[in-house]
Design a protein that fits this description.
The chain is of the alpha/beta class. The chain contains 14 helices and 18 strands. The chain folds into 2 domains: 303 residues, FAD/NAD(P)-binding domain, CATH 3.50.50.60; 171 residues, no CATH class. Strands 1, 2, 3, 7, 8, 9, 10 and 18 form an 8-stranded mixed β-sheet that branches. Helix 1 packs parallel to helix 14 and helix 5 crosses helix 14. The protein is globular, with a radius of gyration of 24 Å. The protein binds flavin-adenine dinucleotide (FAD). It holds the Pfam family DAO.
Length: 511
């Protein structure tokens, strides 16, 4: 069923079993999981079925930390959410991401990789990727020219990525949700108020408003916030009528530990011998998989390095390449040499990489950011058109990110030499951590960690079931629950986590 709050003129009140707030990757995945559950589910969505400028302006916010994209450009506010312009890169979090690692402060999830991975097949279905193995060797067996670089797998390996079409959740799942008799989708329904009982331990009701002033009240057994990591934190902080520090924020954790995946161009890899690099070729419109170089878990632990992967973009080389064999063994010492070599590389990647063999590849890394309490979302005195305080993002990186970049390049440089595959050249900022981050530093448009998961309420906002500590019927879906970020693009994993929460809620609601 579909109702548009903007056209419901009477004060509208509904009761239901489950109220899901936000119809993006997380909210729609959860709603789809309840299609046949025989329960009364409400899905509240701030926007309509189409993009509109006025609603999108409700995503305004201010950056005060590390240079970052304009906040409205990083999230979409209409049915389908940010999936309406996501890139579709899919790969799951790794087992190491769930571990408490002594060199990563605040690491360690309260759930295991195995518990999480049980939901990957269903999550894969949501993003329309195959449900086959994530083991690269098995996946590429029999595929011609898909040859990984011959590196020591205990140091570097090639990690498999699959590409979603990309699934536009608002388009793909709209019909099924609107046709459902047990699910009611409310569009133009912006969550504004969350009201707790007198003891402040149970959500009694929530209120939603449309931009033209219509209001509705929803009273549910359980509520799920699925508005994305910035908005989940913002709405918990802003609802401070009963708990003056905001809901779930007794320990001043809501909004803290904001993480992105720093993405930046780093070194170039120069192969000694031409080989097919089709496996690493970036063209998700034609080829539904590719690989990035990844640092092995054993090497991460041994050297205290955060999780990182590197995409390899082919570069055309001119000139005679035989001189590669005359190179000094240490990439850093040969800096001047490589600066010259770089000048021989044309700026644009060749389009015929799957048939031709190129020798030079530009690395673009995507890395784990360590959890940092000072990297956070707070509230501005500025308010949006609904009277809700706007978010301020203070994105802060730590020394561990810079040291990890340095160490992963040192290790890769050595490994390329040792395995006789080629050489690495990286710019000075990679090795000299006292230099500024380059201006090209960006993020993956991935927002993580603002309602982090931990069994101890002093260390996390939600428990292992994604339920807000101390408020038994209020739950959070999405990457705001990530305890650590991993290096994987988050959507596949956040859907898996959402479906895990959904299963838990079914046990509670159908009891
Ligand atoms: C340009 C770009 C490319 C990306 N590429 C990739 C990629 O290749 N791979 C990958 O894994 N990830 C990618 N991402 C990230 C991906 O889009 C997000 O991880 C994912 O969409 C998050 O899902 P979500 O449901 O948590 O939030 P969203 O998809 O943002 O959905 C949140 C929903 O909540 C609604 N909402 C907000 N406030 C309220 C309110 N007050 N009341 C009611 N509803 C509300 C919004 O309108 C929206 O529909 C990309 C992101 C961007 C911006």
């Amino acid at each position: 069923m579909h109702k548009d709050l903007a056209t419901l003129t009477n004060q509208h009140t509904v009761t239901c079993d489950l109220c899901i707030v936000g119809a993006g990757a997380a909210g729609i995945s959860m709603a789809m999981d309840w299609l046949d559950a025989g329960k009364n589910v409400v899905l509240l969505e701030a926007g309509g079925f189409e993009f509109d400028v006025e609603t999108q302006s409700l995503n305004n916010g201010t950056n005060i930390g590390q240079r970052y994209y304009a906040l409205p450009a990083t999230r979409l506010r209409f049915f389908g959410g940010t999936t309406m312009h996501w890139g579709g890169y899919c790969t799951p979090l790794d087992p190491i991401d769930f571990e408490a690692r002594p060199y990563v402060l605040h690491s360690g999830w309260p759930i295991s990789f195995t518990e999480f991975a049980a939901f990957l097949p269903a999550a894969s279905k949501m993003v329309e990727i195959d449900n086959e193995t994530w083991d690269l060797d098995t996946y590429i067996a029999g595929k011609e020219n898909y040859t990984p670089l011959d590196l020591n797998p205990s140091v570097y390996y090639s990690k498999l990525f699959k590409f979603s079409p990309p699934t536009r959740f608002g388009t793909k799942y709209r019909k099924a949700l609107v046709a459902s008799t047990s699910i009611t989708v409310y569009t133009h329904a912006n969550l504004t108020d969350i009201t707790l009982d007198e003891e402040g331990k149970v959500v009694e009701k929530v209120q939603a408003k449309s931009l033209n002033g219509n209001k509705m009240t929803i009273s549910a057994n359980h509520y799920v916030l699925a508005m994305g990591a910035i908005q989940n934190a913002r709405m918990l902080l802003v609802n401070n009528k009963q708990h003056k520090q905001g809901i779930g924020n007794h320990n001043d954790l809501v909004g803290r530990y904001f993480m992105e995946h720093p993405e930046v161009k780093t070194g170039q890899i120069f192969l000694k011998r031409p080989q097919s690099m089709k496996l690493y070729f970036f063209d998700y419109t034609k080829i539904k998989m590719y690989s990035e170089l990844a640092i092995a878990e054993a090497a991460q632990r041994a050297h205290g390095i955060l999780n990182v992967t590197a995409a390899l973009h082919p570069k055309k080389l001119s000139g005679d390449w035989a001189w590669i064999n005359k190179l000094p063994e240490d990439g850093k010492e040969s800096y001047d040499f490589w600066v010259q070599a770089e000048k021989q590389i044309s700026a644009s990647p060749p389009s015929d990489v799957d048939t031709k063999k190129y020798l030079a590849y530009q690395m673009q890394i995507r890395m784990e950011q360590s959890p940092n309490p000072n990297s956070r979302i707070t509230l501005d005195s500025k308010k949006d058109k609904l009277g809700i305080a706007e978010p301020i993002l203070n994105w802060q990186l730590t020394e561990l990110e810079r040291n990890s970049i340095k160490d992963m390049h040192t290790l890769l440089g050595k490994e390329l030499i040792q395995s006789d595959v080629g050489r690495l050249h990286a710019p000075e900022w990679v090795f000299d951590t006292s230099l500024e981050w380059p201006a090209t530093l960006g993020g993956g448009w991935h927002h993580l960690g603002t309602t982090r998961m931990h069994n101890d309420p002093k260390k996390g906002v939600v428990d292992a079931n994604c339920t807000i500590h101390g408020i038994n019927n209020l739950h959070v879906a999405g990457s705001s629950c990530f305890t650590t970020a991993g290096a994987a693009n988050p959507t596949l994993s956040l859907i898996a986590l959402t479906l895990r929460l959904s299963k838990h809620l079914k046990q509670l609601i159908t009891k």
